[in-house]
Amino acid sequence: MRLKLTLFLAISFFIYANCFAQIDPSLLKRVPKDTVKNILNMDAVYNRPALNINKTPISIGGYVEMNWQKLTTDGVSEGHQFQARRLSIFMSSAISKRVKFLSEIEFEDGGKEIAIEFASVDVEFDPLLNLRAGIILNPIGSFNQNHDGPKWEFTDRPISSTQMLPDTFSNAGAGLFGKKYTKNWMFGYEAYLSGSFDNSIIENTENKTFLPAAKNNPERFEEINSGEPLFTGKLALRNNKIGELGISYMGGIYNKFQDDGIVIDKKRRVAIFALDFNTTLPKIKTFITTEFAWIYVDVPETYSQQFGNKQKGGFIDIVQPILTKTILGWEKATINIACRLEYVDWNVGKFKETGGNIGEDVWSIMPAISFRPTSQTVIRLNYRYLKQRDIFSNPSSITDGFNMGISTYF
Fold it and tell me: Out of the domains of life, which is the source (predicted)?
């Protein structure tokens, strides 16, 4: 399947490159991302720069991420590493009046993994009532939708969004979304039914409750393990002078509870609640974004306590511009300092036998400095200091080291 997809993409790009070479450059124009304030995190799929061919409905764009790192864990290091993290291609088309198609195809780790992260048809009946169907990004928290590398000052994605929540979690599904704004206020909502999790969230090589394991099952785009859809809903409220607050929920049955009409297990649910908030402090222009989530999984009683039924975690990013001026010919280039604080507890609770706290948690601090020649390109240097405890709360293992990378839209 991966070979077929790779060949298909290679042929598509070959055809596109040949057609592109024959187009008059004067007909090409860069469509910048929306810079107005009346946008929400849910608009991230639209709020991307793209190259538009004049008098055609098609736009194309994307971004690339690559970096160097050298990390040490308890004194042991794998040395210097160069990583081709990801290459994402965006393609969209205005099919007709109020009918749009959007897609994102991502190549990770130098093409080791290829995935269609987003491919949907949007039909607008009214600004408050729109239909979306296809491969959707489930809107749990804010990072899952607003994850483009050039938007962030850090080479790594948040731990809570990648190792607790499944980052860029997408499924085949359909639902409604809409928004309305008046003066400084904006309200938005999303509600989808889609493919769901499966038994892999408690049957995986991590030997713990691990929601990202569900991403390894490509069959979720064709069938639902439990036969019942996953519901994802989000409400967002934004004030242009205060910031944006998002409240989201994702839940459903994850296990195969019946086979050929015969009940083989009770229905076991997974439920996720998330809060996200972002704001920019006036005058000093400090940007703050944060996201926290709580996970509840109905784990069978026959499983050991290393499979937690409760998890929690989140992150907060603080970004402070310290210099904005013309630098080396780039107008309005910016130098930022930033810091990310992270915490995840994969097993919230106490041991039944002793009453002692169950470990399996991690916290991290990551200071950073970044240079943005334009808003669409970032060169960033990070230092990570991370402490992680095992399930028995033994002395923490310590990971520290540097990451440096570049990410840009194209």
Answer: Bacteria
